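Data availability (excerpt). All sequences and predicted C-alpha cell strings are deposited with the supplementary files. A representative entry, D-amino-acid dehydrogenase, is shown inline so that the format can be inspected without opening the archive.
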Amino acid sequence: MRIVVIGAGVLGVTTAWYLARDGHAVTVVDRDPMPGQQTSYANGGLLHASHAEPWNAPGVIWQLLRWIGREDSPLLLRPGQIPRLTGWGLGFLRNSSRHRFERNTSVNAALAVHSLQLLRQLRRDTGIRYDDGQNGILKVFHETAALDKARHASKLMAPLGVRHSVLDARQTVALEPSLGEAEDQLTGGIYYPDDESGDAHLFTQRLATLAAAEGVTFRYGVDVRGLRREGGRITCVETDAGDMEADGFVIAAGNDSKRLAAAHGIRLPIYPVKGYSVTLPLAGWSNPPTIPLIDDARKVVVTVLGDRIRLAGTAEFAGYDTSLQTRRADTVLRQAAGLYPSLGEHAAQHTPEYWTGLRPMTVDGPPVLGPSPLSNLFLNTGPGHLGWTFACGCSRVVADVINGETPAIGLDGLGLQRFQRW
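C-alpha cell line:
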C-alpha cells in the first residue's frame, strides 16, 4: 500500500519505519528541512513509563489559579489565553477527577511500558544509538506528602509493569552520590529501574536514515496545505509542491494535526503546551548525576546526554506562540541549580543553549491513535509530554491498525471515539 505520513517528528518517523518494515511504500512529508525539528528537537530526554500521569491531576485548577501570569511558576497560564482555552480547558478540568485521572494514568502507563519494550527491540535489531542510557530514572522529593502521593501513583502503575523502589533521603544519596550537596533538602526519592534516557532528536534523525535505507521517501521543506477528500476517503495531500496521492494517510503532525483534521469535521481536542530546555556542555562540571533526575517540587529534569547536560521543565499555556522567553528558560536553569548549586557555577562559565517547543496535549492525557471516520485516514498525535516515551508504541499500534491487525495493546482510551463520551 502507498502511504503518506504527515510529519517528520519522532512519531512520524517511527510510523514510517514500522510501515516500511511491514512492506508498505511510504512517503513522509514535512515543512522543516530535516526530521525532528519541532517538539522532538530538545526535550528532556527521558523515556519514562514512571511519569505517565496526565498533567490534569486532581486539584490542578487551584495550581493554575495560583500561578496565573507568574513568570517564575512551573505551570503558567497566560491571562490572554483564558478565552481561547474555554472548550479545551473545561475538558482538561473535567478529566481531573480522581476516577478519570487514575484511568488515564493506567492507559498511559500501559502504552509507555509497551513502547519501551519496542524501543529496546528496535535497538537490538538495528544497533541504533542516540546518547541513550539505561540507568533508570530517580525522582526526588522535598516533602513527605509529595513522596506519599507519588508512592500511591507508583503502586497504581506497578501491575502494568512499572517497577519502583521507595527510598529515604540517605538511600537516595547512596544511589546517586551527586545529590550529596542537596541531601539536607530531600525527604526521599523513588527509583524506576526500567526507565531510560536518550536524545529524541538524534534518534529521529538516525531512524530516518535507517528508514530511507528501507525505501521510505522523505519530502522535506514541503508545506502541507490540507487533505483532499472524495466521499469517505482522502485521495491526496495538497502541498505547496503539488498533490501527493496515496492509498492511505497518517496524520502525525503534532500541533498542526488539529487543523488538518478539523477541515474534514474531525475534532481533535488538542492544545499546545509550551516547554523549555537548557543544554550545557558536560565537561567541567565536577558533580554530574549518573542517573537522570526529576525534581518533583521544582518540576525540572536533569539528564546527561552524551557530552551534554539537558535541563528541562515548565508548562506554559500560551497558545501557538513559539517565541523563546529568556526569563522562562532562566527559571529552568535556576530551579536545577537549586538542586545542584555546583551546576549554577558551571553554567556561569558557559553559554547555555535555550530552546522552547510546543507539546500537543489532549484534554485527558493519552494520545489519539488509530482510525478516523474516514476509511483511509489514520491518527498518531496528541502525546503531550510523553511523545518521546510513546513514539515506538504509538507508531506500532497505528501500523497494526493500517495492516488490519489487532494491536498488542487495545485502543480503549487511545482512540478518537473516547471523546464522544463527553
